[in-house]
Amino acid sequence: MTTTQLLHQLQSYLNQQGDLDQLIEVSCQAPKQTCEEVVNILLSWLKQEVIAKKEEDDFDRALGWLSQLTGMTIQSLIMQSHLCQQFAFSTKKAIYLDRAMTCLQEGFRLEPATFDQFQFWATLLVTKGRWQDDMTCVEQAIEMYARAKVRCGLSFELLWDQAVAWQLLYDFSIERSDLQKALNFFSRAQKFTKKVSPYFFVDYSKALHQLALATGDPAPIRQSLVNLRQIQPLVTSLPHVEKIVRELLIHAQSQLVLLTDDPTEFEHANRLYEETITAHPSLANLWLHWGYLLLQVGWKKQQVAIVETAVEKLTSLKIAEADPVLSTVFLSQALMALGVLVDDLNLIQEGEERLLKISQLCPEHRNLIKTEAFVCLAKALYFNDAQYFEGAVNRYTKLVTERGDDIESWYGLMEAYLGWGKLQKQAKLIIKSCHAAARLTQLRPFSSIYHIQTAQLLFLRYRFQQDMKNPGRMLEQAIKHLQLALAIKEDFEVLLQLALMWDALAEETGDDNSYMNAIQGLEILYLRLPTDYRLKNALGVALTHYGVYTLKPDLLFRASHLFEQVLKRDIEHASSLTHLGLCKLVLSEIAVDPHNPEEALSKRSDAERLLKQAIRYGDEEACFHLARLYSMKKLYSESIEYLKRARMQHVLPSIERLEQDTWLEGVRQTEAFQEFVSGLRGK
């Protein structure tokens, strides 16, 4: 058979599926130059037909044919290895990766491996490790890269490949040191050359996102955003890469919102979603993830408008092509969250019904399990039912046990314990809510919202545990968390809470510096907003407490003036009524004419009236002050009654303060008081 005839017959076979076995036999006997042409035709056919169409039988026979045609040379074995890799990617079968590595191994026996061969083998190992969730493959790849470095020195490509390998190893190990090694290699690679591939920055950005989520530090995300924005203009001619870059930009901005809870970053994220969706309306998943971001932000901030917008995004026809499970799960959560916020049981039930339908298709889906926990929480918050709170706690506990870095589950656990603790009035449940909040601050140390919530929970724990050995410690911890929140971003509400917390600590410890921190902080805020009635009341309360502590009438007169201004605007302002009553009570003792006993009686009568009004409008703190007033009036049974009521409402001070309070001296002499204190001590 002549060369022309052989090539013609080969082409005919490839077009019409002739007798390949006979053709192989003839072609292997052809002259060398003919074999080279046969190989080229065969390679073209393999790539265009066999590999593309995933024809395994033809691939195996053709690979054997190539081996016979080219012989056992290093070049032939490397060529076969690359073909096996391509076919592995086409069929997604790791067995062909193994065959590719076998070809390389046989080649290494013929000649020492070059840098490219080491690198290629390591890449095959990384791919196999990713496909088969096999960490040992990745570890072998890292070893192979190290051998390549020893043999051939460093290069940009080698540093990049090593970075990707360590990044993949981190996916298996969750050891932050592995991720840090990956980032070190990325950083070195970036410095190695001035011209860097956009694909490199895509890989680098993914690693930076992983670091940000692992540490809770937004700095790596910001670095990623800089890198991605630099390459964005360079990939406009590469649609596939441009899409990846856009999606990474959105992911980075969304994570920045969740890491910082910064309203400005939230605005940037919304704008970026809108711009990207306008440019790529077919990206259904963007609508899906935009809706979910809105849900997370709206739920944490308890803002109905944001959750309503989330529902709008998640019910859009534009997400019809998105993942059906995630679409249903996210919409279910959004409907239930909105139902809780607007007190609508129908929305909660609709969300639950949607969840039940999809759960039959994939019962083990983690996001679905998380939504089932949210169902319990939503019902618990709506019905204020202990059974639902307990169900939510059990489900969220399981989720955080499986994944200790699951922010949403820790947040749900914190809410469930908090609601359950308030309902049952049990300090141990509030303590567990505090523990969940503390974990949130560890995972997201640069988010002020978690520090604020932790401070509020610590204060609640202080109120629920009046018999603790060192109640002031809870308040000190709360103050530290508020100071951390202010270090992240100064905020009026946080400054106000901090001043109130200093005041509570001062009341507990009798510390002059704490009193002054409270008053000075409120004075500064009051100068900014002199017409704000919340500030008038808060400053009045702090002045009252310090005035009672120091027995300085001028402080109490100034506080009374502030309360009177508040009550002119709102006659039912319970806190102002309570503290104005307290001011009257103290002034009846320290600022009256001793020759005019009727003046003191009048002030006491005003105090009693004001305190009873405060209780009627919902401020139970007034109960304790009424107990003191009735002790002074020697109405001891009434005094005990209001002490018991104060205890039930968790507004009773510590036992030590009760035993030292001057105005309770009369009732302390009674047997009823001794029984009351014994009950507080659990005796």
The number of helical elements comes to 35
* Structural class computed from helices and strand pairing: mainly alpha
Count of beta strands: 0
The N- and C-terminal alpha carbons lie at a distance of 110 Å
- What's the gyration radius in Å? 36 Å
Beta content: under 5%
Parts with pLDDT < 50 across at least 5 consecutive residues = none
Biggest pleated-sheet summary: none
Classify the helix fraction into a percent range: over 70%
- Report mean pLDDT, rounded to a whole number: 87
**Outline:** elongated
Q: Overview of this structure, please?
A:
It is a single chain. With 683 residues, this protein is mainly α. The protein is 81% helix and 0% strand. Helix 3 packs parallel to helix 5 and helix 7 packs antiparallel against helix 8 (135-152). The longest helix has 22 residues, at 32-53.
Q: How are the SSEs placed, and which strands pair?
A:
Elements: H1 3-16, H2 20-27, H3 32-53, H4 56-70, H5 74-91, H6 94-110, H7 115-132, H8 135-152, H9 156-173, H10 176-192, H11 198-215, H12 219-231, H13 239-260, H14 263-279, H15 284-301, H16 304-314, H17 324-342, H18 345-359, H19 366-383, H20 386-402, H21 407-424, H22 427-443, H23 448-464, H24 471-488, H25 492-509, H26 512-528, H27 533-550, H28 553-569, H29 574-590, H30 597-616, H31 621-632, H32 636-648, H33 655-660, H34 665-668, H35 671-681
